[in-house]
């Protein structure tokens, strides 16, 4: 796969840009500001639908809007393909379809043979009346098999909850041409005890999901690292904690390890839109402000 989505180096990953979390006017104003600040993409989290991504496209003019990620268990492929085509036609090709198999705890009995299900879903997108080109989709990939599928049948991969070491390994699997756009959680707080508490509180929800803990084990972590919201070692690996300069240094590690683009998720003590943090990071990170 030689085509790469237009992502820039840095994007924002968030589930807060949904009308479930904030009024439509606030969502529109916030994503429009991300566009103006120069972020290359906004990744809409929380298993979004194409229509939820469409709200962000309507409010912006330049930034790429990606689903981060759309669960293949929640939306029929033909519907996704139709909406993908319509949204890109209306918004200058700025919609990127991020797909994933989610988790058994969320998908329930539907969660059967996830790798096979993803292959079948991609085939359904290929054969839909309005197909989704491989160059306009990325996969939430952690392990080698899903990374290979990202290379062979998509534009690349969007790994979540990973490290620079995972990024280097993923680049080896993907090769030079496929896009690699990992997510990185950050806590913008110079009180490191408080930052660790914030990070631990948020990470705890992921430690009950085997897809993540199995990947952590591949990276050298052990069961003891998953107790009580995560060990300090795990937190330090999965987050950037501290001031904007510290976060910039961590971002540079991912880019040096082979990431084309990094999707930054600001983690804080509340669910409010973290607009002030996004502004602070925009001053420190390598954005296209032209």
Can you put this structure into words, describing what you see?
The protein is of the alpha/beta class and 290 residues long. 44% of the residues lie in helices and 15% in strands. It contains twelve helices and eleven strands. The chain has helices spanning 24-37, 50-58, 77-90, 104-107, 114-127, 144-153, 164-174, 192-203, 210-218, 232-238, 244-257, 275-284, and strands at residues 10-14, 41-44, 64-67, 70-71, 95-100, 137-139, 156-157, 179-180, 183-188, 239-242, 262-266. Strands 1, 2, 3, 4, 5, 6, 7, 8, 9, 10 and 11 form an eleven-stranded parallel sheet that branches. Strand 1 (10-14), helix 1 and strand 2 form a beta-alpha-beta unit. Helix 3 packs across helix 5 (114-127). The mean pLDDT is 94.
Walk me through the topology:
Layout (H helix, E strand, L loop, with lengths): L9 E5 L9 H14 L3 E4 L5 H9 L5 E4 L2 E2 L5 H14 L4 E6 L3 H4 L6 H14 L9 E3 L4 H10 L2 E2 L6 H11 L4 E2 L2 E6 L3 H12 L6 H9 L13 H7 E4 L1 H14 L4 E5 L8 H10 L6
Parallel strand pairs: 1-2, 1-11, 2-3, 3-5, 4-5, 5-6, 6-7, 7-8, 9-10, 9-11
Short description:
The chain has 290 residues and is of the alpha/beta class.
Brief descriptors of the model:
290 residues; alpha/beta; globular
Give the oligomeric state. Answer: single chain
Low-confidence stretches: none
- Approximately how much helix is present in the residues? 40-55%
Mean of residue pLDDT?
A: 94
Annotation field: number of helices: 12
Q: Topology as H/E string?
A: EHEHEEHEHHEHEHEEHHHEHEH
Secondary structure class reads alpha/beta
Proportion of residues in β-strands? 5-15%
Shape, principal axes of CA atoms:
globular
Rg over C-alpha atoms, rounded to the nearest angstrom? 18 Å
> Distance between the terminal alpha carbons, to the nearest Å?
29 Å
Number of DSSP strand runs = 11
Q: Sheet with the most strands?
A: 11 strands, parallel
